[in-house]
Amino acid sequence: MSKKRVIIIGSGMGGLSCGVVLAKNGYDVTVLEQSAQIGGCLQCFYRHGQHFETGMHFIGSAGEGQTLDMLLRYLEVRNDLQLSALDTTAYDIVSLGDRRYRFPNGREAFLDQMSSYFPHQRQQLTDYFNLVERVASASTLHSLKHADHDNAINATYQLKSINGVIDSIITDPLLSDVLVGNLPLYAAEKDKTPFSTHAFIMDFYNQSAWRIVGGSNHIAASMRRTIERYGGRVLTRHKATRILCDDTHATGVEVNGDAFFPADYVISGAHPMRTLELIDSRLIRPAFRQRINSMPQTVGSFSLYLQFKEHTEPYMNSNYYRYNAGTPWGCEVYDDRTWPKGYLYMHFCNEPQQQYATTGVILSYMHMSEVEQWMGTKVGHRGAAYDDFKQQKAERLLESFRQEFPDAYRHIEHYYTSTPLTYRDYTGTEAGSMYGIARDFNAGAACRVPHRTKIPNVLQTGQNINSHGILGVIVGTIVTCSEFLTAQTIYEQIKHSL
After folding, report:
1. E-assigned strands of 295-451?
2. With a threshold of 0.90, does the pTM exceed it?
């Protein structure tokens, strides 16, 4: 009996992980990547011989037996990775006003550290952390069970805002701001982003936090090898230009405008708007297209990549969040006078027990509207005005950075920049958004993208289907691949892979 043919569009985390799961289970998998490099947000690049991350800067819950560790072993990736633990006493540092707040791993360490800053809030902190644990453990994200552990908790905290829930527990406004100091990890917005999103992220990194030695592109390379080991293919410079359909289902994918790849199933890891652009079928109703095309996107980012002079800048084994406006909230609302309201600063890990940083990045919010005049131009050929724009932004951001890190500022040898336009061109995400479609609990189901489409053999995967980040995308992969294998089968396979 011949294998069922599955064409997967896009070689990001979602596409590659779907490819691994299905190839392991006997499907004939072909992954199509339009660029020369695979990986999507796992991509890295090199300048002057130095390595830079573009999207997957650090991961959580990868300690032995923890959730991501189990999933990486199931995907046959874990043994190909070398991980470097972030500082367990300060994996995150949040800078507000003239104080810096350290976030340690572990429940008791977190409560003790935060209580040292806010001794009058010990009970409130305990209540907050208990709720984070309850919400996180109620989801398949963390339980790795084939059914939700507590649907009532999931539903409740998907319909309440982060700030609404935290402010109902924490009575010190400054502590409330400190607790949301990692908002750039999910581009949360006040009165919109569900508390469940915050709970998953907090629990994920509180368990453990790591950098991938040498870059997250090792994850992509490992999954490609696994797909090929099980008889599949990962093809670069193969751009999906159409998903071809008859009256009832998809028949295959047109590639580079001419070649035809027949398929029994098609899975798209592209942004849902990009996926719909590939389909000309009456099976996709205009109302559905309109709903997807009108969904709000998370804000984009201006990225300032730093290269340091050799053996000058001590390696910082923490992620550093600075807020010039005194609060993490509202940094996505700015004008030329107030930008940047905040930034996230990190070093990249190039070797175990790293002593000196060679490269790093500063990230600050930026809307596509600032660069839309250069839409339609190509990377490296956008013109002098675009280069001037980026230089001015870089100088503004560097001046803000210098006030916090004067020594690191002096140690910079080179810097490179990217905008939401760059991010859109390399990942296909709408408006260069950092995390794709924005979650807004006020919109309910209107802000949720189904993994199924009205074409019965066309499915979707990636950060827009479940949640962004490595864990959210892999769980989305489980949801998508459950259409082939059932969720229970996949969870049993995960257990047996340990």
Report:
1. 300-308, 319-323, 342-347, 359-366, 412-418
2. yes
